Amino acid sequence: MTFLRCTWWIAVQGFGMVFKRRATLLFVFAVLGYAFLTTLLLARFADQQNPNGTFAELSLYLFVQVVVPITAVYFGVVATREEVSDGTLLHVLVRPVPRPAIWAGKYLAALLVSVALLGTGYGLACALAPSAASEAGFGQRLRPETLAVFALPMLFGTAAYVAVGCWLGLRFKWAILIGLGFVAAWEQFVSTAPHGSGVRSLTILDATRTLIFHAAEGQDVLRRAILDMSWADTRFDMEARMAELPTAGEAARTLLVFVVLPLALCLWTGARREFVSAEKE
Amino acid sequence: MNAPPPAAPVMQEALLHFDDVSKFYGPVLGLSEVSFELHGGVVGLLGRNGAGKTTLIRLASGLLEPDLGRVRVCGEAPHWSLAARARTGVCPDIDRFYEGMSGHAWVRHLARLSGLSGRHATTAAATALERVGMADKMRKRIGAYSKGMRQRTKLAAALVHEPRLLLLDEPLTGLDPVGRFEIVQLVRRLGDEGCAVLVSSHVLSEVELMTDQLVLIHQGRLMAEGRVSEIRDQIDDQPRRVAIDVPEPRRLATTLLEREAVEGVEVEQGRLLARFRDGQRFYGTLTAIGGDHGVRGLINLDAGLDAVFDYLVGRA
After folding, report:
1. Residue environment code for A234-251, b if the CB has 16+ CB neighbours within 10 A, otherwise e
2. Which of A98, A267, A97 lies closest to B109 in space, CA to CA?
3. Which chain B residue's Cα is nearest to A6?
4. Of B63, B65, B94, the CB nearest to A279
5. Cβ–Cβ contact B92 with A under 8 A
6. Cα–Cα dist B250/B256, whole Å
7. How does strand B165-169 pair with strand B196-201?
8. Are B217 and B46 in contact (CB under 8 A)?
């Protein structure tokens, strides 16, 4: 009971604190930028392209690949790092709060902020895009299933990125840089390794895309775009690539590992570490 | 019918108990084999900068775990026990807050974390802030507070859940004279009310205002513990010193030296400074001859905290 009460209260406080940061505005602009750019491009090329494909590709390349990972890792880092580095954590540590509740609360806060921001951007794009694409000369309208296909995989992906960010924030002084490096180098590079290499499942991005792929039944443009994301794979046989794709269950399991493992490390590090030198950081 | 067994003597459990506690920061010694108990009242934790005061406070508050020995608050290890931490109020030495919050919101937040319900936390936060003289500023942003106001806010946060043990790390830092006086009075009142208060400071005069009960540490070791006068009595390798206000100091000096009651005398600024070891003998002699020499007054030069501290630290 104490654990739940403290977790909830820390999450509520953390949500307010993270949301009020000036840098949060940057991410507000990023998600709004995605929504308006998608709408603009759909309106601009409505007569030349399939709106379902345009929306899917923009969401995949811009939102899923870039905005979601950076936003979620950033807020995860901020949630845990800030209080450790400015020393305010000491005030919490001397209270009768179970240490795991502190980190669980911070994870929850970062997740809520990320989901609120990313959800707003995605929701806005889903709300604006159909009207922009309604005059499509290509003969197709933007289908609801195209809009909905990203929602759940992105939610799971966000949960995993936030967990990684939380652990990095707790563990490393330069966590934001390490987090950006993780997204820009590891995630982007390894998740586009050849399908048969076996290393792609070490990334959140590949698992998220795989879930999107399995959810996108009948959406050929999106499915092809996902299968195409591979360097050094010269095969044109998409069937062969598809056969090497993990199942939805395997992808979900990968994401679960990426949530549970960093969180467990977070709780373990948070319980063991002595935060006495926090102020000097 | 058997008579009931005699009741066992009731030992009052110490609110804070250090049992042979050592703490290392890597190869650096933070605290070494420190043992003491705190039952109630105000106790000054005295030591120079870097002596280990903050380490001791952090061990007592559960922020740190001892490498050797045991720390107990009401019989439980504060690093692991939530109940022990619920009974402890801590005013840490760091000056860090959520700057955007008001003082009231901050104290309320910490009250919630101490287990107070929403409405109760709101009332308790207001009461604690009033108690430290922040009634009219509690709704302002902490970022706009002066150093003294921030210090008072920290103190209010330590008091908000009415702890039985209060750990104050340099609580008077940054306060103006009026603020110091008010906080000193508050600390003394808390001690009188039965709260055990451990106040750390490196400023002797501050501690002297609050209590004469001391825990003195130097280079991570416990040097002495108890009342200042008791500690002074234990220092037998240093002669005691008194300044005697007398019209003819040289004549009195000669008389005292003849009686072998003193170890040495000096005349300084019209006063006679006398050094002696056997207090009973010295004061007996002085009482016997003082009237003939017209002794007007006597000042004990080493019963103060400063002198005791200097002796102990100098000896270490």
Report:
1. eeeeeeebeebbbebeeb
2. A97
3. B113
4. B94
5. yes
6. 10
7. parallel
8. yes
* Six-digit token string for A86: 């400015």
B113-149 pLDDT, tens digit per residue, is 999 988 999 999 999 999 988 999 999 999 999 888 8
B217 SS3 class: strand
Task: State pLDDT tens for residues B196-235.
Answer: 999 998 777 778 888 888 898 888 899 888 887 777 666 6
When pLDDT is averaged across residues A29-53 and rounded to a whole number, the result is: 83
CB pair distance less than 8 Å for A97 and B61: no
Tracing tokens 């990334």 back to the chain, one arrives at: A203
Q: Judging by beta carbons within 10 Å of its beta carbon (0-12, 13-18, 19+), is residue A204 exposed, middle or buried?
A: buried
Interatomic CA distance for residues A39 and A131, integer angstroms: 9
- Could you give the CA distance from residue B232 to residue A128 in angstroms, rounded to a whole number? 82
Q: What is the ipTM of this complex?
A: 0.80
C-alpha distance across the termini of chain A, in Å: 34
Alpha-carbon separation of residue A238 from A197, A198, A222 (angstroms)? 16, 17, 13
Residue-wise pLDDT tens digits, A203-257: 999 999 999 999 888 888 888 888 887 776 666 676 777 777 889 999 999 999 9
Side chain identity, residue A220:
D
C-alpha to C-alpha distance for B13 and A98, rounded to whole angstroms = 25
**Structure tokens, A112:** 């809520």
- Which tokens sit at B95? 């000056």
